[in-house]
Design a protein that fits this description.
mainly alpha; 5 helices
Protein backbone atom coordinates (compact mmCIF):
# COMPACT_ATOMS: atom_id res chain seq x y z
CA UNK A 1 0.00 0.00 0.00
CA UNK A 2 1.18 3.51 -0.72
CA UNK A 3 1.27 6.48 1.65
CA UNK A 4 -2.19 7.79 0.78
CA UNK A 5 -3.88 4.40 1.13
CA UNK A 6 -2.22 3.73 4.48
CA UNK A 7 -2.98 7.24 5.78
CA UNK A 8 -6.63 7.09 4.76
CA UNK A 9 -6.90 3.66 6.39
CA UNK A 10 -5.60 5.15 9.65
CA UNK A 11 -2.49 2.96 9.68
CA UNK A 12 0.02 5.82 9.76
CA UNK A 13 0.25 9.47 10.80
CA UNK A 14 0.50 12.19 8.16
CA UNK A 15 4.11 12.88 9.13
CA UNK A 16 5.04 9.50 7.63
CA UNK A 17 4.95 11.27 4.26
CA UNK A 18 8.51 12.38 5.05
CA UNK A 19 9.63 8.75 5.46
CA UNK A 20 7.95 7.72 2.20
CA UNK A 21 9.55 10.66 0.39
CA UNK A 22 12.96 9.73 1.77
CA UNK A 23 12.57 6.07 0.80
CA UNK A 24 11.57 7.07 -2.74
CA UNK A 25 14.58 9.38 -2.94
CA UNK A 26 17.12 6.73 -1.99
CA UNK A 27 15.51 3.94 -3.99
CA UNK A 28 17.54 2.54 -6.86
CA UNK A 29 14.37 1.76 -8.78
CA UNK A 30 12.90 4.27 -11.20
CA UNK A 31 9.43 2.80 -11.07
CA UNK A 32 7.45 5.99 -10.84
CA UNK A 33 7.26 9.65 -9.91
CA UNK A 34 7.09 10.71 -6.29
CA UNK A 35 3.41 11.59 -6.78
CA UNK A 36 2.67 8.08 -8.04
CA UNK A 37 4.77 6.50 -5.28
CA UNK A 38 2.80 8.38 -2.62
CA UNK A 39 -0.52 7.62 -4.32
CA UNK A 40 -1.46 11.27 -4.78
CA UNK A 41 -3.46 12.61 -7.68
CA UNK A 42 -2.40 15.73 -9.59
CA UNK A 43 -4.59 18.08 -7.55
CA UNK A 44 -3.22 16.74 -4.27
CA UNK A 45 0.34 17.06 -5.53
CA UNK A 46 -0.29 20.66 -6.63
CA UNK A 47 -1.70 21.59 -3.22
CA UNK A 48 1.22 19.92 -1.45
CA UNK A 49 3.82 21.73 -3.58
CA UNK A 50 2.09 25.08 -4.06
CA UNK A 51 0.46 25.55 -0.67
CA UNK A 52 1.76 23.39 2.19
CA UNK A 53 1.91 20.05 3.96
CA UNK A 54 -0.99 21.21 6.13
CA UNK A 55 -3.16 21.91 3.10
CA UNK A 56 -2.52 18.41 1.76
CA UNK A 57 -3.29 16.92 5.17
CA UNK A 58 -6.60 18.81 5.28
CA UNK A 59 -7.46 17.58 1.79
CA UNK A 60 -6.70 13.97 2.73
CA UNK A 61 -8.54 14.30 6.04
CA UNK A 62 -11.65 15.32 4.13
CA UNK A 63 -11.36 12.10 2.12
CA UNK A 64 -10.78 10.18 5.34
CA UNK A 65 -14.08 11.46 6.69
CA UNK A 66 -15.91 10.31 3.56
CA UNK A 67 -14.51 6.79 3.82
CA UNK A 68 -15.81 6.20 7.33
Amino acid sequence: MNFKERYLAGEIEFEAIDDFTYEWGISQETCCTLREYLGLNEEEEDVWISVSDEALKEMLDQQKGKTK
